[in-house]
Amino acid sequence: MEQRVSFRIGEEELVLETGRMAKQANGAVFAKLGGSAVIATACAAENEKEDLDFIPLSVDYIEKYYAAGKIPGGFIKREGRPKDKEILVSRLIDRPIRPLFSRLFRREIQVIPMAISTDQVNPPDILAMNAASAAITISDIPFEGPIGAVRMGYVDGKLIVNPTFDQIQETTLELVVAGTAKGITMVEGGARQVSESLIIEAIETAHRTIIELCRIQVELAQKAGKQKLPLVERPSTFTLGAEVRSWSMPKLQEASFVKGKENRSRAIKAVRTEALEHFKDRLAERPTRRQLALRLTRA
């Protein structure tokens, strides 16, 4: 069933829709601002991965020329590897959402926001950040969001939320601000000789809009969101943790201060090898040896 929420930002209305496209994804949201549109999908693997000490998240923002009605010509007829802009926007999306996933969710997560239309007036990158958060929020993937994102500009003595491409060229301040309803989690941008008070005012103004962006995402989740998958905390079967730490920590501290990058790396690897040899009689199975290596790496 199709569901829709909207929120007016400046002169344009931000629209978030779900239930019409990409129905096989864990979560999918079609976002539109003016003539720019982005479809964001969030998918999670069916099976868990063991012994993960990181969040298995990948974000791939896609922005092809056809979104602006252009087809590459000349020798290169097709678009190849991701452009620098796509990589940078992927990082903008990744940074505020990654800390909001639980380490107990051991499935690979893939978030793909794709610009399908741009009016060359409203930048699709900020739209993609909000669409990605909304897709995860309505999905069954556990997520401590949502997050909202805006771009702040300062043109002709006024702060502008989500300035157009032309306004960005004239602005003396450009900030991309992301955060939750509770606070700011990321600020990126630059300025040309502006006061500290103006930057603070811009961030505060951005957060007021972010609160509303989070609100409409929660509203969309209430209308069309899936029940979140359970987080299961599995007790560790590794019983030598404290003993390994007390035995290896002094050696690792000494190895970590060896001068020279290569020498230091060899010294740390030597400690790991020595620890595996020291505890080998008490490590019955191969997975347990792997756990020991992981714990030494984290230490």
**CATH topology tier name of the largest domain:** Ribosomal Protein S5, domain 2
Q: Approximately how much beta-strand content do the residues carry?
A: 15-25%
What number is the mean pLDDT? 86
CATH class value of the largest domain: Alpha Beta
Basic shape: globular
Architecture blueprint of SSEs:
Elements lengths: L2 E7 L2 E7 L8 E7 L2 E9 L12 E3 L2 E2 L20 H14 L11 E9 L6 H15 L9 E8 L2 E4 L3 H6 L2 E7 L4 E8 L4 H29 L16 H15 L5 H18 L7 H13 L1
Parallel strand pairs: 5-7, 6-7
Antiparallel strand pairs: 1-2, 2-3, 3-4, 4-7, 8-9, 8-10, 10-11
What can you tell me about this protein's structure?
37% of the residues lie in helices and 24% in strands. The protein has 299 residues and is an alpha+beta fold. It has two domains: 3-146 and 208-224, 2-Layer Sandwich (Ribosomal Protein S5, domain 2), CATH 3.30.230; 241-298, no CATH class. The strands form two sheets. Strands 1, 2, 3, 4, 5, 6 and 7 form a seven-stranded mixed beta sheet that branches. A four-stranded antiparallel beta sheet has the order 9-8-10-11, sandwiched between helices. Helix 1 (84-97) packs across helix 2 (124-138), helix 2 packs across helix 4 (196-224) and helix 5 (241-255) runs antiparallel to helix 6 (261-278). It is globular and about 70 Å long. The protein starts with a strand and ends with a helix. The mean pLDDT is 86.
